[in-house]
Protein backbone atom coordinates (compact mmCIF):
# COMPACT_ATOMS: atom_id res chain seq x y z
CA UNK A 1 0.00 0.00 0.00
CA UNK A 2 1.28 3.47 -0.86
CA UNK A 3 1.21 6.16 1.82
CA UNK A 4 2.23 9.78 1.43
CA UNK A 5 4.26 11.01 4.40
CA UNK A 6 6.42 13.95 5.37
CA UNK A 7 10.16 13.48 4.90
CA UNK A 8 10.64 14.40 8.55
CA UNK A 9 8.73 11.21 9.46
CA UNK A 10 10.85 9.02 7.20
CA UNK A 11 12.84 6.29 8.97
CA UNK A 12 15.44 3.67 8.13
CA UNK A 13 13.55 0.66 6.78
CA UNK A 14 10.88 2.62 4.90
CA UNK A 15 10.68 1.86 1.19
CA UNK A 16 10.43 5.03 -0.88
CA UNK A 17 8.26 4.25 -3.91
CA UNK A 18 8.39 7.73 -5.44
CA UNK A 19 9.21 11.33 -4.62
CA UNK A 20 6.54 14.00 -4.49
CA UNK A 21 8.84 16.39 -6.31
CA UNK A 22 10.12 17.27 -9.76
CA UNK A 23 12.20 14.42 -11.13
CA UNK A 24 14.12 17.02 -13.18
CA UNK A 25 15.22 18.99 -10.15
CA UNK A 26 16.64 16.29 -7.91
CA UNK A 27 19.80 14.17 -8.00
CA UNK A 28 17.74 11.01 -7.44
CA UNK A 29 17.51 9.28 -10.79
CA UNK A 30 15.30 6.49 -9.51
CA UNK A 31 12.68 7.28 -6.91
CA UNK A 32 12.44 3.72 -5.56
CA UNK A 33 14.76 2.64 -2.76
CA UNK A 34 14.82 1.28 0.75
CA UNK A 35 16.13 3.81 3.26
CA UNK A 36 19.35 2.44 4.76
CA UNK A 37 20.85 5.44 6.53
CA UNK A 38 20.11 8.84 8.07
CA UNK A 39 22.37 10.32 5.39
CA UNK A 40 19.87 9.27 2.71
CA UNK A 41 17.04 10.91 4.62
CA UNK A 42 19.10 14.07 5.05
CA UNK A 43 19.90 14.12 1.33
CA UNK A 44 16.18 14.15 0.57
CA UNK A 45 15.71 17.08 2.94
CA UNK A 46 18.72 18.91 1.49
CA UNK A 47 17.12 18.70 -1.95
CA UNK A 48 13.89 20.27 -0.68
CA UNK A 49 11.95 17.04 -0.97
CA UNK A 50 9.32 17.52 1.73
CA UNK A 51 7.02 14.58 1.01
CA UNK A 52 7.47 11.04 -0.28
CA UNK A 53 5.34 7.99 -0.99
CA UNK A 54 6.31 4.84 0.93
CA UNK A 55 5.34 1.29 -0.02
CA UNK A 56 4.35 -0.57 3.15
CA UNK A 57 4.49 -3.92 1.34
CA UNK A 58 8.21 -3.48 0.64
CA UNK A 59 9.25 -1.79 3.89
CA UNK A 60 8.13 -0.53 7.28
CA UNK A 61 4.68 0.95 7.85
CA UNK A 62 3.95 4.23 9.64
CA UNK A 63 1.32 5.40 12.11
CA UNK A 64 -1.89 6.85 10.69
CA UNK A 65 -1.31 10.13 12.50
CA UNK A 66 1.80 10.70 10.37
CA UNK A 67 0.16 10.14 6.98
CA UNK A 68 -0.47 13.19 4.82
CA UNK A 69 -4.09 12.96 3.77
CA UNK A 70 -4.68 13.48 0.06
CA UNK A 71 -7.33 16.06 -0.88
CA UNK A 72 -10.69 14.76 -2.02
CA UNK A 73 -11.55 14.44 -5.69
CA UNK A 74 -13.29 17.82 -5.77
CA UNK A 75 -10.29 19.54 -4.21
CA UNK A 76 -7.65 18.56 -6.76
CA UNK A 77 -5.61 21.49 -8.00
CA UNK A 78 -5.16 20.16 -11.54
CA UNK A 79 -6.93 21.34 -14.66
CA UNK A 80 -7.15 19.58 -17.98
CA UNK A 81 -5.25 21.02 -20.94
CA UNK A 82 -6.29 20.42 -24.51
CA UNK A 83 -3.59 18.14 -25.88
CA UNK A 84 -3.83 19.70 -29.33
CA UNK A 85 -3.44 23.24 -27.98
CA UNK A 86 0.27 22.68 -27.29
CA UNK A 87 2.83 23.34 -30.00
CA UNK A 88 5.69 20.99 -30.74
CA UNK A 89 9.24 22.38 -30.32
CA UNK A 90 8.10 25.22 -28.03
CA UNK A 91 9.28 25.66 -24.45
CA UNK A 92 6.56 24.85 -21.94
CA UNK A 93 6.42 27.48 -19.13
CA UNK A 94 4.56 25.17 -16.73
CA UNK A 95 4.83 21.63 -15.40
CA UNK A 96 2.89 19.07 -17.45
CA UNK A 97 1.22 16.15 -15.72
CA UNK A 98 -0.45 13.02 -16.98
CA UNK A 99 -2.63 10.56 -15.10
CA UNK A 100 -1.20 7.08 -14.62
CA UNK A 101 -3.06 4.46 -12.58
CA UNK A 102 -5.35 7.16 -11.26
CA UNK A 103 -2.54 9.39 -9.98
CA UNK A 104 -1.22 12.66 -11.34
CA UNK A 105 2.39 12.22 -12.43
CA UNK A 106 4.79 14.94 -13.49
CA UNK A 107 5.73 14.24 -17.10
CA UNK A 108 7.56 17.31 -18.39
CA UNK A 109 9.22 19.99 -16.28
CA UNK A 110 8.60 23.64 -17.12
CA UNK A 111 11.05 25.50 -19.37
CA UNK A 112 11.86 22.36 -21.36
CA UNK A 113 11.01 22.04 -25.06
CA UNK A 114 8.09 19.89 -26.13
CA UNK A 115 10.27 17.68 -28.29
CA UNK A 116 8.49 15.77 -31.10
CA UNK A 117 9.68 12.49 -29.58
CA UNK A 118 8.05 13.38 -26.26
CA UNK A 119 4.80 14.33 -27.98
CA UNK A 120 4.78 11.10 -29.98
CA UNK A 121 5.61 9.14 -26.83
CA UNK A 122 2.45 10.45 -25.18
CA UNK A 123 0.44 9.41 -28.23
CA UNK A 124 2.04 5.95 -28.33
CA UNK A 125 1.10 5.46 -24.67
CA UNK A 126 -2.49 6.45 -25.53
CA UNK A 127 -2.35 9.25 -22.96
CA UNK A 128 -5.12 11.45 -24.26
CA UNK A 129 -5.32 13.94 -21.41
CA UNK A 130 -2.67 16.11 -19.80
CA UNK A 131 -2.90 18.52 -16.89
CA UNK A 132 -1.34 21.54 -15.25
CA UNK A 133 -1.59 22.88 -11.71
CA UNK A 134 -4.50 25.32 -11.54
CA UNK A 135 -2.16 27.90 -10.04
CA UNK A 136 -0.25 28.00 -13.34
CA UNK A 137 -3.27 28.76 -15.51
CA UNK A 138 -1.99 32.29 -16.21
CA UNK A 139 1.19 30.76 -17.68
CA UNK A 140 -0.95 28.57 -19.94
CA UNK A 141 -2.97 31.59 -21.08
CA UNK A 142 0.19 33.54 -21.94
CA UNK A 143 1.74 30.52 -23.62
CA UNK A 144 -1.25 29.99 -25.91
CA UNK A 145 -1.21 33.68 -26.89
CA UNK A 146 2.55 33.77 -27.48
CA UNK A 147 2.66 30.58 -29.55
CA UNK A 148 -0.37 31.24 -31.75
CA UNK A 149 1.75 31.97 -34.82
CA UNK A 150 3.84 28.85 -34.30
CA UNK A 151 0.71 26.78 -33.71
CA UNK A 152 -0.86 28.00 -36.95
CA UNK A 153 2.31 26.98 -38.76
CA UNK A 154 2.48 23.63 -36.97
CA UNK A 155 -1.08 22.78 -38.08
CA UNK A 156 0.19 23.22 -41.64
CA UNK A 157 3.20 21.01 -40.92
CA UNK A 158 5.56 23.99 -40.91
CA UNK A 159 7.89 25.58 -38.36
CA UNK A 160 8.96 29.11 -37.52
CA UNK A 161 11.69 30.18 -39.92
CA UNK A 162 10.46 27.69 -42.54
CA UNK A 163 7.21 29.33 -43.55
CA UNK A 164 7.73 29.18 -47.33
CA UNK A 165 8.57 26.42 -49.85
CA UNK A 166 11.75 28.32 -50.71
CA UNK A 167 13.02 28.22 -47.12
CA UNK A 168 12.24 24.50 -46.86
CA UNK A 169 14.00 23.91 -50.18
CA UNK A 170 17.10 25.75 -48.92
CA UNK A 171 17.07 23.67 -45.75
CA UNK A 172 16.87 20.41 -47.68
CA UNK A 173 19.59 21.63 -50.05
CA UNK A 174 21.88 22.25 -47.09
CA UNK A 175 21.24 18.82 -45.53
CA UNK A 176 21.41 16.87 -48.78
CA UNK A 177 24.37 18.55 -50.47
CA UNK A 178 26.79 19.35 -47.64
CA UNK A 179 28.61 17.07 -45.25
CA UNK A 180 29.50 18.12 -41.69
CA UNK A 181 33.15 17.61 -40.79
CA UNK A 182 35.10 17.55 -37.55
CA UNK A 183 37.27 20.63 -37.08
CA UNK A 184 39.90 18.54 -35.23
CA UNK A 185 41.06 17.16 -38.57
CA UNK A 186 41.85 20.66 -39.88
CA UNK A 187 45.20 21.52 -38.34
CA UNK A 188 46.55 25.07 -38.81
CA UNK A 189 49.12 25.41 -41.56
CA UNK A 190 47.89 22.43 -43.61
CA UNK A 191 46.71 22.91 -47.18
CA UNK A 192 43.11 21.79 -47.52
CA UNK A 193 42.19 20.34 -50.95
CA UNK A 194 38.50 21.26 -50.73
CA UNK A 195 36.43 24.33 -50.01
CA UNK A 196 35.11 24.73 -46.47
CA UNK A 197 31.79 26.29 -45.56
CA UNK A 198 29.90 27.21 -42.43
CA UNK A 199 26.18 27.05 -41.86
CA UNK A 200 24.16 29.27 -39.59
CA UNK A 201 20.37 29.21 -39.64
CA UNK A 202 20.61 27.13 -42.86
CA UNK A 203 22.55 29.91 -44.65
CA UNK A 204 25.77 28.61 -46.24
CA UNK A 205 28.95 30.72 -46.43
CA UNK A 206 32.39 29.78 -47.76
CA UNK A 207 35.23 30.41 -45.30
CA UNK A 208 38.11 28.78 -47.17
CA UNK A 209 38.77 27.99 -50.82
CA UNK A 210 40.26 24.72 -52.00
CA UNK A 211 44.07 24.44 -51.80
CA UNK A 212 44.38 27.28 -49.31
CA UNK A 213 46.45 27.07 -46.13
CA UNK A 214 43.88 26.81 -43.43
CA UNK A 215 44.07 29.17 -40.45
CA UNK A 216 43.17 28.88 -36.80
CA UNK A 217 39.74 27.34 -37.09
CA UNK A 218 39.26 26.46 -33.44
CA UNK A 219 39.44 30.00 -32.17
CA UNK A 220 36.87 32.76 -32.45
CA UNK A 221 33.45 32.46 -34.02
CA UNK A 222 34.07 29.08 -35.61
CA UNK A 223 33.96 27.47 -32.19
CA UNK A 224 30.30 28.43 -31.93
CA UNK A 225 28.35 25.24 -31.25
CA UNK A 226 25.52 26.53 -33.45
CA UNK A 227 27.74 26.62 -36.51
CA UNK A 228 28.18 23.58 -38.71
CA UNK A 229 31.48 23.20 -40.53
CA UNK A 230 30.79 21.70 -43.97
CA UNK A 231 32.20 20.44 -47.23
CA UNK A 232 30.30 19.85 -50.44
CA UNK A 233 29.05 16.34 -51.07
CA UNK A 234 31.08 16.13 -54.28
CA UNK A 235 34.27 16.64 -52.25
CA UNK A 236 33.86 13.47 -50.19
CA UNK A 237 36.61 11.61 -52.06
CA UNK A 238 39.01 14.52 -51.53
CA UNK A 239 38.18 14.51 -47.83
CA UNK A 240 38.79 10.75 -47.60
CA UNK A 241 42.22 11.15 -49.23
CA UNK A 242 42.94 14.08 -46.93
CA UNK A 243 42.15 11.95 -43.87
CA UNK A 244 44.29 9.11 -45.24
CA UNK A 245 47.29 11.41 -45.64
CA UNK A 246 46.94 12.73 -42.11
CA UNK A 247 46.66 9.19 -40.71
CA UNK A 248 49.85 8.08 -42.50
CA UNK A 249 51.92 10.72 -40.70
CA UNK A 250 50.59 10.22 -37.18
CA UNK A 251 52.82 9.03 -34.35
CA UNK A 252 51.81 7.07 -31.26
CA UNK A 253 51.70 10.07 -28.95
CA UNK A 254 48.55 10.50 -26.86
CA UNK A 255 47.26 13.52 -28.78
CA UNK A 256 47.92 11.91 -32.15
CA UNK A 257 46.18 8.70 -31.10
CA UNK A 258 43.15 10.81 -30.21
CA UNK A 259 43.31 12.36 -33.66
CA UNK A 260 43.41 8.86 -35.14
CA UNK A 261 40.20 8.07 -33.24
CA UNK A 262 38.62 11.18 -34.79
CA UNK A 263 39.77 10.12 -38.26
CA UNK A 264 38.28 6.64 -37.79
CA UNK A 265 35.01 8.22 -36.69
CA UNK A 266 34.99 10.61 -39.68
CA UNK A 267 35.65 7.74 -42.08
CA UNK A 268 32.82 5.76 -40.51
CA UNK A 269 30.48 8.72 -40.95
CA UNK A 270 31.36 9.04 -44.64
CA UNK A 271 31.03 5.32 -45.31
CA UNK A 272 27.68 5.26 -43.51
CA UNK A 273 26.40 8.11 -45.67
CA UNK A 274 27.52 6.30 -48.81
CA UNK A 275 25.88 3.09 -47.60
CA UNK A 276 22.60 4.88 -46.85
CA UNK A 277 22.73 6.38 -50.36
CA UNK A 278 23.28 2.87 -51.82
CA UNK A 279 21.97 0.42 -49.20
CA UNK A 280 22.08 -2.57 -51.53
CA UNK A 281 25.86 -2.29 -52.02
CA UNK A 282 27.64 -5.28 -50.52
CA UNK A 283 30.98 -3.51 -50.92
CA UNK A 284 29.86 -0.51 -48.84
CA UNK A 285 28.32 -2.80 -46.23
CA UNK A 286 31.68 -4.57 -45.91
CA UNK A 287 33.48 -1.23 -45.57
CA UNK A 288 31.02 -0.15 -42.86
CA UNK A 289 31.69 -3.39 -41.00
CA UNK A 290 35.44 -2.77 -41.17
CA UNK A 291 35.01 0.75 -39.79
CA UNK A 292 32.91 -0.53 -36.91
CA UNK A 293 35.59 -3.12 -36.13
CA UNK A 294 38.15 -0.32 -35.92
CA UNK A 295 36.00 1.66 -33.48
CA UNK A 296 35.47 -1.41 -31.31
CA UNK A 297 39.19 -2.13 -31.36
CA UNK A 298 40.22 1.37 -30.31
CA UNK A 299 37.62 1.33 -27.52
CA UNK A 300 38.95 -1.95 -26.12
CA UNK A 301 42.68 -1.43 -26.66
CA UNK A 302 43.09 2.29 -26.02
CA UNK A 303 40.32 3.65 -23.75
CA UNK A 304 42.01 7.04 -23.27
CA UNK A 305 42.00 7.66 -27.03
CA UNK A 306 38.48 6.31 -27.40
CA UNK A 307 37.19 9.26 -25.34
CA UNK A 308 37.53 11.24 -28.56
CA UNK A 309 34.85 9.01 -30.09
CA UNK A 310 32.40 10.05 -27.40
CA UNK A 311 32.72 13.77 -28.09
CA UNK A 312 29.35 13.99 -29.76
CA UNK A 313 28.43 17.54 -30.76
CA UNK A 314 25.09 17.33 -32.48
CA UNK A 315 23.69 20.30 -34.34
CA UNK A 316 21.10 19.45 -36.97
CA UNK A 317 20.06 15.98 -37.85
CA UNK A 318 21.67 13.74 -40.41
CA UNK A 319 20.52 10.12 -40.38
CA UNK A 320 24.04 8.84 -41.03
CA UNK A 321 25.62 11.01 -38.29
CA UNK A 322 22.92 9.90 -35.85
CA UNK A 323 23.64 6.29 -36.81
CA UNK A 324 27.36 6.69 -36.04
CA UNK A 325 26.53 8.34 -32.72
CA UNK A 326 24.19 5.50 -31.76
CA UNK A 327 26.87 3.00 -32.77
CA UNK A 328 29.46 4.70 -30.54
CA UNK A 329 27.08 4.97 -27.58
CA UNK A 330 26.13 1.31 -27.99
CA UNK A 331 29.81 0.30 -27.99
CA UNK A 332 30.23 2.26 -24.77
CA UNK A 333 27.23 0.58 -23.14
CA UNK A 334 28.27 -2.86 -24.39
CA UNK A 335 31.75 -2.38 -22.97
CA UNK A 336 30.33 -1.11 -19.67
CA UNK A 337 28.16 -4.22 -19.18
CA UNK A 338 31.03 -6.55 -20.12
CA UNK A 339 30.00 -7.91 -23.52
CA UNK A 340 32.53 -10.29 -25.06
CA UNK A 341 35.00 -8.73 -27.49
CA UNK A 342 34.03 -11.02 -30.34
CA UNK A 343 31.61 -11.46 -31.79
CA UNK A 344 29.06 -9.88 -29.44
CA UNK A 345 30.41 -6.33 -29.22
CA UNK A 346 31.10 -6.11 -32.96
CA UNK A 347 27.64 -7.46 -33.82
CA UNK A 348 26.03 -4.97 -31.45
CA UNK A 349 28.02 -2.08 -32.92
CA UNK A 350 27.30 -3.08 -36.51
CA UNK A 351 23.58 -3.48 -35.83
CA UNK A 352 23.50 -0.12 -34.05
CA UNK A 353 25.18 1.56 -37.04
CA UNK A 354 22.51 0.06 -39.30
CA UNK A 355 19.55 0.62 -36.98
CA UNK A 356 18.04 3.40 -39.13
CA UNK A 357 19.03 2.06 -42.55
CA UNK A 358 15.34 1.72 -43.39
CA UNK A 359 15.11 5.53 -43.52
CA UNK A 360 17.08 5.34 -46.75
CA UNK A 361 13.84 4.01 -48.26
CA UNK A 362 11.78 6.99 -47.08
CA UNK A 363 11.61 10.30 -48.96
CA UNK A 364 14.20 12.80 -47.73
CA UNK A 365 11.63 15.59 -47.63
CA UNK A 366 9.82 13.66 -44.90
CA UNK A 367 13.03 12.74 -43.01
CA UNK A 368 14.11 16.40 -43.05
CA UNK A 369 10.69 17.98 -42.61
CA UNK A 370 11.09 21.15 -40.49
CA UNK A 371 7.83 20.81 -38.65
CA UNK A 372 5.49 18.42 -36.88
CA UNK A 373 4.63 15.21 -38.70
CA UNK A 374 0.99 14.45 -39.35
CA UNK A 375 -0.37 11.15 -38.01
CA UNK A 376 -0.13 9.74 -41.53
CA UNK A 377 3.46 10.92 -41.96
CA UNK A 378 4.41 9.51 -38.56
CA UNK A 379 2.96 6.15 -39.60
CA UNK A 380 5.11 6.24 -42.75
CA UNK A 381 8.17 7.15 -40.67
CA UNK A 382 7.57 4.19 -38.35
CA UNK A 383 7.82 1.89 -41.34
CA UNK A 384 11.59 2.45 -41.39
CA UNK A 385 11.98 -0.40 -38.90
CA UNK A 386 10.44 -3.10 -41.09
CA UNK A 387 11.95 -1.54 -44.22
CA UNK A 388 15.41 -1.71 -42.65
CA UNK A 389 15.09 -5.36 -41.71
CA UNK A 390 13.74 -6.29 -45.13
CA UNK A 391 16.55 -4.40 -46.85
CA UNK A 392 19.28 -6.10 -44.81
CA UNK A 393 17.75 -9.55 -45.32
CA UNK A 394 18.77 -9.05 -48.94
CA UNK A 395 22.44 -9.18 -47.90
CA UNK A 396 23.95 -12.61 -47.39
CA UNK A 397 25.85 -13.83 -44.34
CA UNK A 398 24.74 -11.11 -41.90
CA UNK A 399 24.70 -12.65 -38.40
CA UNK A 400 21.24 -12.74 -36.84
CA UNK A 401 22.28 -10.65 -33.78
CA UNK A 402 22.97 -7.70 -36.15
CA UNK A 403 19.24 -7.55 -36.88
CA UNK A 404 18.12 -7.00 -33.28
CA UNK A 405 19.12 -3.31 -33.08
CA UNK A 406 17.48 -2.74 -36.46
CA UNK A 407 14.12 -4.31 -35.67
CA UNK A 408 13.87 -3.64 -31.92
CA UNK A 409 15.28 -0.16 -31.25
CA UNK A 410 11.74 1.23 -30.95
CA UNK A 411 10.39 -1.62 -28.82
CA UNK A 412 9.85 -0.92 -25.10
CA UNK A 413 9.93 -3.28 -22.13
CA UNK A 414 6.49 -1.96 -21.12
CA UNK A 415 5.06 -3.14 -24.45
CA UNK A 416 4.27 0.39 -25.66
CA UNK A 417 6.82 0.43 -28.51
CA UNK A 418 6.65 -0.55 -32.15
CA UNK A 419 6.41 -2.22 -34.63
CA UNK A 420 5.43 -5.41 -32.74
CA UNK A 421 4.71 -4.09 -29.26
CA UNK A 422 7.17 -6.57 -27.74
CA UNK A 423 7.64 -6.51 -23.97
CA UNK A 424 9.98 -7.83 -21.30
CA UNK A 425 12.25 -10.71 -22.23
CA UNK A 426 10.93 -10.77 -25.79
CA UNK A 427 13.28 -7.85 -26.47
CA UNK A 428 16.89 -8.87 -27.05
CA UNK A 429 19.69 -7.21 -25.08
CA UNK A 430 20.94 -5.59 -28.32
CA UNK A 431 17.50 -4.05 -28.86
CA UNK A 432 17.48 -2.77 -25.27
CA UNK A 433 20.90 -1.17 -25.60
CA UNK A 434 20.17 0.50 -28.94
CA UNK A 435 16.82 1.83 -27.70
CA UNK A 436 18.56 3.85 -25.00
CA UNK A 437 21.35 5.07 -27.29
CA UNK A 438 18.86 6.04 -30.02
CA UNK A 439 16.61 8.13 -27.76
CA UNK A 440 19.54 9.80 -26.03
CA UNK A 441 21.09 11.00 -29.28
CA UNK A 442 17.69 12.00 -30.70
CA UNK A 443 16.77 14.18 -27.72
CA UNK A 444 20.21 15.80 -27.40
CA UNK A 445 20.50 16.70 -31.09
CA UNK A 446 19.53 20.26 -31.95
CA UNK A 447 17.86 21.14 -35.21
CA UNK A 448 17.44 24.46 -36.95
CA UNK A 449 13.78 24.43 -35.92
CA UNK A 450 13.91 22.82 -32.48
CA UNK A 451 15.89 23.00 -29.29
CA UNK A 452 17.50 19.94 -27.83
CA UNK A 453 17.24 18.72 -24.28
CA UNK A 454 20.41 18.93 -22.23
CA UNK A 455 22.25 15.69 -21.59
CA UNK A 456 21.21 15.69 -17.95
CA UNK A 457 17.54 16.40 -18.73
CA UNK A 458 17.60 13.60 -21.30
CA UNK A 459 18.99 11.17 -18.74
CA UNK A 460 16.26 12.21 -16.34
CA UNK A 461 13.59 11.82 -19.03
CA UNK A 462 14.73 8.25 -19.60
CA UNK A 463 14.80 7.66 -15.85
CA UNK A 464 11.25 8.97 -15.57
CA UNK A 465 10.19 6.33 -18.09
CA UNK A 466 12.44 3.59 -16.77
CA UNK A 467 9.68 0.98 -17.05
CA UNK A 468 10.35 1.15 -20.80
CA UNK A 469 14.03 0.30 -20.45
CA UNK A 470 16.39 -2.21 -18.93
CA UNK A 471 17.39 -0.83 -15.51
CA UNK A 472 20.83 -2.49 -15.36
CA UNK A 473 21.71 -1.33 -18.85
CA UNK A 474 20.55 2.18 -18.02
CA UNK A 475 22.72 2.27 -14.90
CA UNK A 476 25.71 1.23 -17.00
CA UNK A 477 24.80 3.87 -19.58
CA UNK A 478 24.75 6.67 -17.00
CA UNK A 479 28.08 5.53 -15.55
CA UNK A 480 29.58 5.36 -19.04
CA UNK A 481 28.41 8.88 -19.90
CA UNK A 482 29.78 10.23 -16.63
CA UNK A 483 33.15 8.69 -17.48
CA UNK A 484 33.32 9.68 -21.13
CA UNK A 485 31.28 12.88 -21.47
CA UNK A 486 31.64 14.44 -18.02
CA UNK A 487 27.97 15.39 -17.76
CA UNK A 488 27.36 18.25 -15.30
CA UNK A 489 26.01 17.03 -11.95
CA UNK A 490 26.35 13.40 -13.09
CA UNK A 491 28.53 12.57 -10.11
CA UNK A 492 25.79 13.69 -7.72
CA UNK A 493 23.19 11.45 -9.37
CA UNK A 494 22.25 8.52 -7.15
CA UNK A 495 20.78 5.42 -8.69
CA UNK A 496 18.45 3.48 -6.46
CA UNK A 497 16.74 0.25 -7.36
Record the SSE blueprint:
Blueprint: E1 2-6, E2 15-19, E3 33-34, H1 38-46, E4 51-55, E5 78-81, E6 91-92, E7 96-100, E8 103-108, E9 112-113, H2 116-124, E10 130-133, H3 137-146, H4 148-155, H5 165-177, E11 178-180, E12 191-192, E13 196-200, E14 203-208, E15 212-213, E16 228-232, H6 236-248, H7 254-277, H8 282-301, H9 303-306, H10 319-336, H11 341-353, H12 364-367, H13 375-382, H14 384-393, H15 403-408, H16 429-444, H17 455-464, H18 471-485
Antiparallel strand pairs: 1-4, 2-3, 2-4, 5-10, 6-9, 7-8, 7-10, 11-16, 12-15, 13-14, 13-16
Structure commentary:
There is one protein chain. By secondary structure, this protein is α+β, with helices and mostly antiparallel strands. It folds into 4 domains: 2-66, Alpha-Beta Complex (Molybdopterin biosynthesis moea protein, domain 2); 73-155, no CATH class; 163-234, no CATH class; 250-492, Hypothetical protein af1432. Helices cover 42% and strands 13% of the residues. The protein has 18 helices and 16 strands. The strands form 5 sheets. Strands 1-4-2-3 form a 4-stranded antiparallel sheet, with no helix packed on it. Strands 5-10-7-8 form a 4-stranded antiparallel sheet, with no helix packed on it. A hairpin with a 2-residue loop joins strand 7 and strand 8 (103-108). The longest helix is centred in the middle third of the chain and has 24 residues, at 254-277. The radius of gyration is 24 Å and the shape is globular.
What are the salient characteristics of this protein?
497 residues; 4-stranded antiparallel sheet; Molybdopterin biosynthesis moea protein, domain 2; 4 domains; alpha+beta
